[in-house]
Amino acid sequence: MPSARSSMLDRAPTSKTSEPTDRETATRPVAFRGAGFMPKAGRYSGWIALALALGLWQLAGSTRLVNPLFLPPPTAIARAMWQLAISGALWQHLAYSIMRIGIGWILGTIAGVITGFAIGLSNLARGVGITFISALFPIPKIALLPLLILWLGIGEEPKIATIALGVFFSTAISVYSGVDNVPRNLIRMAQSFNVPFHAIVRRVIWPGALPSILAGFRITASVALLLVVSAEMIGAEYGIGAFVLQAGNLMQTDQLLAGVVILSLFGLAVGKLINLLETRLLHWR
């Protein structure tokens, strides 16, 4: 019997051997996995990819793998842009386009912000406004340009009105969507403290809707650029769109692509401006 008891004691696990393992498991560090799906772009990856694309494009043009008439190399496009700049034609066309975009975007944005807040804050305006916006928003605004020419005459007014219409609908939709996305608990809390209506709009609704409004500005800037090019192609003597159409009719593809590059650079500049605006106004996020 003593021998059997001693063998059973030898087989039984002891708590002293398991204690260090439990302690090591409890104190082992766990890798942090809460990055929140935050995308991080490389600092130089975009510029490197752009330089490689331009290098391959230039190589294909220099070795005649691609006909320069159909796709001029980047050096030919840069030369055409330089000639346009020193001749003064670039600044003339660019000035007309910027004037039309600026006036049309400002008018459409002001009307869209007022309408969007009215729809977001008033039941009557919501019932009327959403019906009209839903019915008119899908219409291509450039299709209204001939009608606007009949109404407003041949000049700058129809082009500016076309841009303003395109900007208005997108702005109104982004504004009232932003107002609807403001947490209602914050509004109810302000109302429970008898905060005046105008103070609620200024201190609660406006900051809450501002991210959506600025996102709408980014969209409407692209809409204005597309509409000004289309309007200038239909009925304008000066402007980037008119210049691109004229260069295409004359098969001057280097100048045509120079106009396209100018439009791209203008869009990048507007995007940078909106980024600065977001950084300044949304620093609390």
UniProtKB/TrEMBL annotation:
Its main location: membrane. It holds the Pfam family BPD_transp_1. The keyword Transmembrane helix applies. InterPro entries: MetI-like, MetI-like_sf. It is found in: Cell membrane. CDD domains: TM_PBP2 (cd06261). GO terms for cellular component: plasma membrane. Belongs to the binding-protein-dependent transport system permease family. Probably part of an ABC transporter complex. Probably responsible for the translocation of the substrate across the membrane. This is NitT/TauT family transport system permease protein.
